[in-house]
């Protein structure tokens, strides 16, 4: 049988490890730092409004950042979108469970679909440049019923994604500080709701950048610190410790009963499950579409491709290093659970990483993981909140309650949506916690819920013949099929349907694959009876962007100009070329990260030698340091002209008291595509 957690002590009892940090420290991080970020983002939002006319009281700026975000900030935001607390905690969890293959499959299950989204994002910009959400596209092509079906699928996706994050983060915060898990669950979203409420999507991009930069610094710190303690000493010393760990507790399902091989049956099953689940998470996550719409046309493909490829290093490096540390030092007095192993409850709660950090860096390591976990969950939560907010304001309020809603009306309902989803997500996570669900369970079963809309959504954007009946029926049948296979497999394999049995890997793999792929034959068969022949130009007949008005700032006017430019033949040709490039990189990333690299290693039954393990870890470390450069410094280089403009305005005291028109004395300056587009305000967004 394949379980969702490694073998551990004889009885699955949760032995409480005393928290290394006080509750006061926990509340400072969760509440005070959250509020500091919120206040900081509010200040930055006001500064951008006064210096470069980025006015978040206008819908186009609040939801899409005037479609002007450049390559550097887009790449950083993409990395941040997948830098979940699940990623930093879960990659170490599967490394502890399956050995060296676990973190690799975790990383390989993320990068291909992020890069593939570059294609979807560019197609959206080509065919419906004024869109704010994926659901607007579905409604225009297929009508009200399909719109409601996909709204349900997307909201369910966002809800389970956020619950997955909060469950892992809250458990880690509880273990590190002693704060009650439910208190952490409700307090973590507070700061997020505040700065997202005020700053919208641009605040999300900026906080994504700051949080990602800080998390990568912490990760890079551990890549150095792990080899400075005498118990490890070097990569070779870590290798010896992992070899010894396999002799004490040999992993089941691995060739040679070693952690140091890619030939792990359980690891491969997790790789299949993770790949399918993450395709669902990306494609059905409206936050990815919101960020794609916010990126400038020329930044979408480079930003997503660069972000997807560089992201690969984070779960691979961190998971490999810290799970190896946990396995190697588990019998050392420095390890928090010594002299016992971690229980399956501790592993399922994602405590492999915190315990490993405590083993090599003491309270400092615990504080670093606490900060990284908090920043990871708040950063990704912000994207989820703004995505759901856009659904509530555009797809519910503006569509069904007030079609003639003004800019101010939609902004108000966007604010309502931010607060509403923050409360609902915390409440739903609390419900799951009290029924006995943890990070490990949600990590495994997530794909059953998120995958049914994959093929219908992709065909909505890429295949003009998919019929209305197919897009409505196939995801519903797909979800029912997936849930049926998941629960049926749990019963057939383990004799009961319980929280425990439905969290085992095999039922989750079968259910996720069924949920992901069954809609394909459903939609093809249904479409055969009455195929649609959709004219892509029909997308552009419905105006979605708010028209510029005399009261609208120059930013909004410039945004409208930018949208109009997308219809020019030259721009369309350029975007088609970008779409081909995105398709090429999508195929190359999937083949490289998921097929040509790992599968031959799986088939070869190779057991890592000390020199090969050393090279493996060194490459992972170099890659993650490269990710630090891309996510941390490239946005600064890319946005240097806008930063210079803001600095000049601040230094010369030219901050405008009001924002009526917002004229600037520096008209005509041209900045990079990260800038807000305010032609009269001195910031001209880069064209294609």
UniProtKB/TrEMBL annotation:
Region Disordered, residue ranges:
656-688
Q: Which PROSITE patterns match?
A: NA_SOLUT_SYMP_3 (PS50283)
Example of a GO cellular component annotation carried by this entry: plasma membrane
Q: Where in the cell is it found?
A: Membrane
Entries under InterPro entries matching the protein: DUR (IPR031155), Na/Glc_symporter_sf (IPR038377), Na/solute_symporter (IPR001734)
Q: Where is the composition biased (Low complexity)?
A: 669-681
Which residue spans adopt a coiled-coil conformation according to this UniProt entry? none
Q: Which residues cross the membrane?
A: 24-48, 69-98, 104-124, 145-167, 179-198, 205-224, 268-289, 309-329, 381-401, 413-435, 441-463, 470-492, 504-529, 578-596, 616-637
Main localisation: membrane
Show the GO MF annotations. Answer: urea transmembrane transporter activity
**Family note:** Belongs to the sodium:solute symporter (SSF) (TC 2.A.21) family.
Name by which UniProt lists this protein: Urea active transporter
Q: What organism is listed for this UniProt entry?
A: Pseudogymnoascus verrucosus
